[in-house]
Design goal:
The chain is α/β, with parallel strands linked by helices and 253 residues long. It has one domain: Rossmann fold. Helix content is 42%, strand content 17%. It has a 7-stranded parallel beta sheet with strand order 3-2-1-4-5-6-7, sandwiched between helices. Strand 4, helix 4 and strand 5 form a beta-alpha-beta unit. Helix 1 packs across helix 7 and helix 4 packs parallel to helix 5.
Length: 253
């Protein structure tokens, strides 16, 4: 990733932090963003260690003006952009009959509109060979119960495929990765029963790490994936692969 510049949203912790660190380690220049005025302690340590190749910028992904300011910063400081990781995301765990329109709107604003605004702001800075990775979820491949989150991630899949079709003529690739249960601040608050049941449905029999997601993001951003676009790539230990058949198989052991 030497001489390539990448924007990563939601970089203060979890998958975003791992992505920023792995990209810098691979030689990229990274603009790491998140909501807070200053980076988290963990991200600040990365910035301090790699001062010449990573910068932090506050960004609310739901605000068009914030994206305009970021694109101006990238253009003035770097000239262009080679990659965008739409990693920022939130969840609300209300079920179908309890979910409100406000739940749907709040989650969609970040998970879907944020990615749309990011692409609209960043694509004009990109040349052929650039790559966009939208971070979805195993919930975008199955029917998870948190309805607002699941609906948003399915919508992000559609946005990704539409973008891949639209931007292919420009030589810009767009793909999505779909993590399973990854040990992040977002999943730390999950019900223990949810964790246990999810692991039971995961053929590899464990949760994943942010670094395992970051490695796949790095691949999709890199020239090694030069002929890969419009792909939904699960990083879920096989959870989405069996359509529920694993529990049936396990019951018959």
């Amino acid at each position: 990733m030497t001489d390539r510049t990448v924007v990563v949203t939601g970089a203060n912790g979890g998958q975003g932090l791992a992505e920023a660190l792995m990209l810098v380690t691979a030689g990229a220049t990274v603009i790491a963003t998140d909501l807070t005025p200053e980076p988290s302690t963990a991200l600040e340590a990365v910035v301090t260690k790699h001062l010449e190749r990573i910068a932090y910028r506050p960004l609310d992904v739901t605000l068009p003006d914030a994206w305009t300011a970021l694109s101006r910063f990238v253009r003035d400081g770097c000239g262009g952009l080679d990659g965008l990781v739409n990693n920022a995301g939130i969840t609300r765990r209300s079920r179908l009959l309890e979910a409100t329109p406000a739940d749907l709107a709040a989650v969609s604003d970040v998970n879907v509109t944020g990615a749309l605004l990011g692409m609209q702001a960043c694509v004009p800075l990109m040349a052929p060979g650039a790559s966009i990775v939208n971070v979805g979820s195993v919930a975008a491949l199955t029917g998870h119960y948190p309805v607002a989150y699941t609906a948003s991630k399915w919508a992000l899949r559609g946005l990704t495929i539409a973008a891949a079709t639209e931007l292919g003529a420009r030589g810009i690739r767009v793909n999505s990765v779909h993590p399973g249960f990854i040990e992040t601040p977002m999943t730390a608050g999950a019900n223990p029963a949810f964790r246990k049941a999810t692991i039971a449905e995961t053929p590899l029999g464990r949760t994943g790490t942010p670094e395992e997601v970051a490695a796949v993001v790095l691949f999709l951003l890199s020239p090694m994936a030069a002929f890969v676009t419009g792909v939904d790539l699960p990083v879920d230990g096989g959870q989405s692969s069996h359509g529920g058949a694993k529990s049936v198989s396990d019951a018959l052991r």
